[in-house]
Specification:
Layout: E1 6-15, E2 18-28, E3 33-37, H1 44-51, E4 64-66, E5 69-70, H2 75-81, E6 82-85, H3 97-107, H4 112-125, H5 141-153, E7 159-163, H6 171-186, E8 190-194, H7 198-204, E9 207-212, E10 215-220, H8 222-226, E11 233-237, H9 241-250, E12 255-257, E13 262-266, H10 271-283, E14 290-294, H11 298-306, H12 309-312, E15 321-322, H13 323-331
Parallel strand pairs: 3-8, 3-9, 6-7, 7-8, 10-15
Antiparallel strand pairs: 1-2, 1-4, 4-5, 9-10, 11-13, 11-14, 12-13
Bound molecules: adenosine-5'-triphosphate.
Length: about 325
């Protein structure tokens, strides 16, 4: 089995008395997108800064390996294999997009002709060829972000850290950026993404970790995380009032909508719970005209995990949960 792209054990970081990361474990398989979510100040940027060698972890941290190299013992090797696009762009507004790219190629010691080739190719790929000779200060926010990522790719990194890559972008530019990120992963790159947009994590990430109070409050795929919070239900709709009434009495714990001839049954959306509902309908010889499964969205998960239970009314959500464990429970 190959090494994960990122493996951190007991990652710790304090500033003075303030514990920012209280021993978090992270494993990111190669060629996947991992998203770290958390409220402002949760420590997402700190985690990115440590994993990209910009900031030292506390000595009490466990082993941290990035790109197969030990972060403490061989930071140079780690640096050679990664790219970082932070909240503060590396783009120099005073020079053109092309010059920014060529500067990057020089920093990576690419031969001149190779630097020009890579620059032209990346500017084309990120739809910046027409603007290549204009000063970067004249670029829109979306163009600057694209240039920033293009600059990161000059060194052909295998792992890319994207710290809030779409903050402040309009919806169209955000979608373009999502497409770019997906294409990076198709090419085998591993992406470590922090974001404050839950939809972004939902759209892109293979796995999501929610950081709160210095710890990982929950981790899993978007679907697994959504199953952790209450609010999911199965909705059955009928056209025949008789079938509707029969179903209402055959099923337990239903909320009725007599006008719409619809029934709502609390459910985590798991196969086991769906089967139970369908079995009851089958036994009673009833067929619904429409069946839809509603799971909570990531916003629900985020508020449940990072807000206090008393505030959000979501008592019962475990504070330290591995969603895959929970899922295994569900399908058993
Ligand atoms: N160099 C530093 N010195 C002291 N405190 C710091 C330093 N860097 C970060 N912190 C503190 O660590 C905490 C986590 O900050 P960090 O920037 O990692 O959070 P974040 O999750 O990225 O937040 P945001 O979403 O607002 O960017 C904050 O309370 C911040 O004030």
């Amino acid at each position: 089995m190959t090494d994960p792209a990122i493996a951190a054990n007991g990652l710790r970081k304090s500033y003075g008395d303030k514990v920012v990361l209280d021993g978090i474990d992270l494993v990111v398989p190669e060629g996947t997108i991992f998203s770290l979510l958390g409220p402002n100040g949760a420590g997402k940027t700190t985690a990115v800064n440590i994993l990209s060698t910009l900031v030292s972890p506390d000595p009490a941290s466990g082993a941290i390996r990035v790109g197969g190299h030990d972060l403490g013992a061989d930071p140079q090797a780690v640096r050679a294999g990664i790219g970082v696009t932070g909240q503060f762009s590396a783009v120099d507004g005073l020079i053109t997009g092309e010059e920014n790219m060529l500067l990057m190629a020089d920093l990576h010691h690419l031969p001149r002709s190779e630097g020009r080739r890579v620059t032209a190719e990346l500017l084309e790929r990120f739809d910046l060829t027409d603007a290549a000779k204009k000063p970067a200060s004249s670029y829109s926010g979306g163009m600057k972000r694209r240039l920033d990522i293009a600059m990161t790719l000059v060194g052909s990194p295998r792992i890319i850290f994207l710290d809030e890559p779409t903050t402040g972008l309009d919806p169209r530019s955000r979608h373009t950026m999502w497409q770019i990120i997906r294409e990076l992963v198709t090419g085998g790159v591993t992406v470590f993404l922090t974001t404050q947009y839950l939809e972004e994590a939902d759209q892109l990430a293979d796995r999501i970790a929610v950081l709160n109070n210095g710890r990982i409050a929950a981790e899993g795929s978007a679907e697994e995380l959504k199953r952790l919070v209450p609010g999911g239900h199965v909705r059955l709709r009928f056209t025949d009032p008789h079938a509707y009434r029969s179903a209402a009495s055959a099923l337990h714990d239903v909320a009725r909508d007599d006008e719409a001839l619809a029934l709502q049954i609390p459910s985590d959306g798991s196969q086991r719970e769906l089967r139970a509902v369908l079995d009851r309908l089958d036994t009673a010889g009833i067929e619904a005209d429409e069946l839809t499964v509603h799971t909570p969205d990531l916003d629900d998960v985020f508020f449940a995990l990072t807000g206090s239970a008393a505030d959000t009314g979501t008592a019962g959500v475990p504070s330290q949960t591995t969603a895959s464990d929970q899922t295994k429970e569900n399908v058993r």
